[in-house]
Amino acid sequence: MNEPAEARDAASAPPFWRQPRLWIGLIAAIVLVAMLSGEMAPGVGLPLLVVAVIGFFACAILTGEPPVLQRLAEKVRPQEDHVEGEPAVHALIAALPEPALLLTPTGEIRTANSRVALAIGPAKVGDPLSFLVRVPEVLEAVRMAAEDGIPRRVEFAERIPLDRWLEAHVVPVQLKPRPDASGSKGAAPAPSKPDGVLLTFRDLTAQRRSEQMRADFVANASHELRTPLASLSGFIETLLGPAKNDAAARERFLGIMGAQARRMSRLIDDLLSLSRIELNVHVRPDTVVDLCGILSHVRDTLGPLAQDRAITITLETDGSAMPVRGDRDELIRLFENLVENALKYGGTGQNVDVRIAREPGTQGDVAAVSVRDYGPGIAPEHLPRLTERFYRVDVAASRDQGGTGLGLAIVKHIVARHRGRLMVESTPGKGATFTVRLDLSDDAAKNSVNTAA
Ligand SMILES: Nc1ncnc2c1ncn2[C@@H]1O[C@H](COP(=O)(O)OP(=O)(O)OP(=O)(O)O)[C@@H](O)[C@H]1O
Ligand SMILES: [Mg+2]
């Protein structure tokens, strides 16, 4: 497809037998010979002159010169695929950033760029389009566009090998100059059928997925807010009506209403933090903080919850400082979420082990923080979806614990902002281990470390 320039120029030059100058010279020579021989041998000159005149018309028809004979030449010459400047068309198709094919009006592949092979499949010049694309709507659009010259757009979905959405643009094109393009001035160009169809594809999958995620997110967020709101309205009605004078019921209902209001406010806080972290995800924090200090702070904060569940949080370090470039509040939030999950879903009466260790990484050492519980664990099919917003393995169990299903989505974004890695390992029945790896910042630590816990 990437021919050298000389080859393209050679291919675009008309063949020698279509050079008018050659034929004019040849005929002039024949006429001259005919006239001279007429002088010398009477009786030979006239037939030669007739042959010369016939030859002239024949070559005029073949070469399309002069213009008055162009139409006749068009009719007599065999219809070839060759288009003036076709190599340039090939080069243009090859340069397009999207998968693109040029088709004949009858739907055969004339040329295709290399992106077609990657996105659609291997395209062979001369094959009908239907060998490559088996979507009836696209084939029909190509047929109609070649017929009426109107561009079309077709959206279609593929299920195999992967779900994806594509958009095909079908644009009829006029590659050969119109017969009257250089002809009579002022006359309207004669309507002619397209002599090619440009077919390009656009992958809409990423766009569709993000639209779907946005729609799911709005639906989930409104559902999560509406549930406590409905409960609040119900209790208000009860308190204004049947339970108006029931002091005990009022006491109990107000307690539930308080819990629901806190749940709503927590959900709004989580949504706001998620969008704030997402907004700053490309800005890596530039302060240096000590992870050991952050982890002991988290262990102390969650001490009361651990006590309630008869769980012991153990914190294991090698005693050395673990400085990382990070946002202290966000890192506290990250490890609070992981340790809280381990406490909530790890089963009562068990241990939760938090361990920090230095490990060699690709660019210097990394700090690996693992949070391990000994609860029921997580089935493998849930693991890839855990960090999706509102995704919960057991919705009722999470709600009972006051969960919003946003914790791990927040964790994922904080880890991304810190250019770290999150790994989840779990064997059902044997607990789960969440590990976060962050680059250590030993050099920066020598200048300033915020170790405040
Ligand atoms: N250590 C764990 N063991 C078992 N399941 C877990 C563990 N951690 C998370 N999960 C599962 O993953 C789900 C998503 O966790 P995530 O932290 O995102 O939400 P949540 O805990 O339900 O709500 P929130 O964190 O907002 O309070 C949980 O609902 C739970 O089903
Ligand atoms: Mg959680």
UniProtKB/TrEMBL annotation:
GO terms for molecular function: ATP binding; phosphoprotein phosphatase activity; phosphorelay sensor kinase activity. The keyword S-adenosyl-L-methionine does not apply. It is found in: Cell membrane. It catalyses: ATP + protein L-histidine = ADP + protein N-phospho-L-histidine. Residues 220-442 form the Histidine kinase domain. Its main location: membrane. Pfam families: HATPase_c (PF02518), HisKA (PF00512). GO terms for cellular component: plasma membrane. Its EC number is 2.7.13.3. Gene3D superfamilies: 1.10.287.130, Histidine kinase-like ATPase, C-terminal domain, PAS domain. It comes from the Bacteria. One of its GO terms (biological process) is cellular response to phosphate starvation. Residues 176-195 are annotated as: Disordered. The chain crosses the membrane at residues 21-38, 44-63. Residues 180-195 have a biased composition (Low complexity). It is an enzyme of class 2 (transferase). Keywords: ATP-binding, Cell membrane, Kinase, Membrane, Nucleotide-binding, Phosphoprotein, Transferase, Transmembrane, Transmembrane helix, Two-component regulatory system. This is histidine kinase. It comes from Azorhizobium caulinodans (strain ATCC 43989 / DSM 5975 / JCM 20966 / LMG 6465 / NBRC 14845 / NCIMB 13405 / ORS 571).
